[in-house]
Amino acid sequence: MKFLILFTLISYSVMAQDPLTSECTQAAMRFGNGEGDDYVSKDCFDWVKQNKTDQNSISMADKIQVMGHLNLIFISEFKEGKYLTHIIAGKSSGLKNIKAMSLSLEHRELYVLQGQELLVFSMDITGNVGPMRKFQSSTLAPADSVTYLAEGEQLKIGVSGLGKIYPRLIRSK
Fold first, then answer.
1. What value does the mean pLDDT of the chain take?
2. Average pLDDT over residues 121-137
3. Handedness of CA 90, 93, 98, 102 (dihedral sign)
4. Does the pLDDT value for residue 161 go beyond 50?
5. What number is the average pLDDT over the span 16-40?
6. Which of 34, 86, 104, 121 has the most CB within a 10 Å radius?
7. What is the DSSP letter of 3?
8. 8-22, 34-48, 150-164 — which is least confidently predicted?
9. What angle do CA 6, 9, 13 make, to 5 degrees?
10. What does the alpha-carbon distance between residue 92 and residue 81 come to, in Å, rounded to a whole number?
């Protein structure tokens, strides 16, 4: 009987999920799928903001702020005297569990580390969009940071402060 009660409690705690987390991850998955409104609520923006860390958020001199959590990215950029916010989400994005992000303003690219993948998105094409480039390797699994190094146009992929530097993998022009 004790085993059954313990199993039930563990099962309930695993299945129980913050309703806002569920709402926001579902809204991100439906975003741009053609089956409904392409709407992500302000509550979801606030949810991402509450869950941001140094690894999954970027802020550059009041010009741009990028925040991501799980499968949803908000890009707020100051243009023409006001902040414009764009979203990257949806099935085509391939976003599942964002661990870290970095960006290159010069190349207008956003680098997203998740699991064994590094996804490269354009900051100018948002919505339910796939990455411009995608790199997969089991060596990325333990990584917890990605940093764009402007000098030398390189990415530093880090594991708890240690890092390996890779060429930025420039797209062919």
1. 83
2. 93
3. negative
4. yes
5. 82
6. 121
7. H
8. 8-22
9. 140
10. 31
Spell out the alpha helix ranges (H) of the chain: 2-15, 19-30, 42-50
Query: Rounded to an integer, what distance in angstroms lies between the CA atom of residue 108 and that of residue 122?
Result: 6
For each of the domains in the chain, give its residue range(s) and CATH number, in order of start. Answer: 2-167 (2.110.10)
Residue 45 to residues 23, 31, 73, 122, 133, Cα–Cα distance (Å): 12, 14, 9, 20, 26
**pTM of this prediction?**
0.81
Return the CA Rg of the chain. Answer: 18
Please tell me what DSSP assigns to residue 128.
S
Supply 42's token pair. Answer: 């302000």
Rounded to whole angstroms, the Cα distance separating 166 from 102 reads: 14
Q: Is the dihedral of CA 96, 99, 104, 105 positive or negative?
A: positive
What span, in angstroms and rounded, lies between the C-alpha atoms of 40 and 47? 11
User: Quick one: CA dihedral 134, 140, 146, 150, positive or negative?
Assistant: negative
Q: pLDDT tens for residues 42-93? A: 999 999 999 988 888 988 877 899 999 999 999 999 888 898 999 999 999 9
Give pLDDT, residue 129.
95
Helix orientation angle between 42-50 and 19-30, rounded to the nearest 10 degrees: 110
Cβ-Cβ contacts under 8 Å for 141 (sequence gap 6 or more): 115, 116
